[in-house]
Amino acid sequence: MRRLLLLFLALLPMSAPAAPAGNPKIGQQLVEKSCIKCHAAMYGGNGSGIYTRSNRMVHNLKQLAARVALCNANTNTGWFPDEERDVVAFLNQQYYHFKQ
Q: What is the pLDDT along the chain (100 residues), one digit of tens a residue?
């Protein structure tokens, strides 16, 4: 029985380390460069209304990361995954405050 348990545990995939947290300062620069113009056109002002509206579409960190990836793909910003993490880190720090 013990051998079977050890064999089973040996065959389990090792869990990958958690992705490093993004850099909010870099994320802020990316947002200012690539997001503000579109968000301002949709929500007026400085565009931050998209993050602070009462009917938010994002309710957790996973959804925020998915939304950033979707915007990246739809607007052809060309961000790499680490840049997406930076944007998520900035938006979470500035507007959402989801727990890591």
A: 566 444 444 555 544 444 568 999 999 999 999 998 889 998 888 888 899 888 988 999 999 999 999 999 999 999 999 999 999 999 999 999 999 8
pTM of the model: 0.78
**In which domain, by residue range, is 42 found?**
21-96
Answer whether residue 59 is part of any domain.
yes
Please state the φ and ψ torsions of residue 16, each to the nearest 5 degrees: -70, 145
Q: How many domains does the chain have?
A: 1
Alpha carbon distance 8, 52 (integer Å): 48
